[in-house]
Amino acid sequence: MKELNGRIISKGVVEGEAIISKSPISFLGGVNEEGIVTDKENELFGKSIANKIFVFPSGKGSTVGSYVIYGLAKRGLLKGMVNFESEPIVATGAILGKIPLVDKVNIDEIKDGDIVVVDGNTGTVKIKEQ
Fold first, then answer.
1. Which of the residues 23, 26, 58, 62 is marked catalytic?
2. b vs e for 3-39, b when ≥16 Cβ sit within 10 Å of the residue's Cβ?
3. What residues form the catalytic site here (predicted)?
4. CATH number for the domain formed by residue range(s) 2-127
5. Can you give the residue ranges of every domain in the chain?
6. Summary mean pLDDT of the chain
């Protein structure tokens, strides 16, 4: 098992399948309430982040994005997140929604479909051997 060290943003521990966006994403207008990526510029356009560990470099855009993340959490759709650099919008949404989030991680080490454990209590991301 490979372990990546990062920074604690939102506490909790979750395991799941990673889905990767190589580009920053705005949750307001970029992800709908069912967890489908609606940003036509993003490589995940049309794909669902529901019940996955969403790995992306950073967020972008409106502060309302925090409430979109919170809404996804309340509906049980967003399990966990990993960022290269969490900015306040994503961090606030994760904390409000009690979604484990770790940043300062080399996200290039994580591949689409990897099973990962996001540990927001220790600031680590573990990639399980497949």
1. 62
2. ebebebbbbeebebebbbbeebbbbbebbeeebebeb
3. 62
4. 3.50.30.10
5. 2-127
6. 96
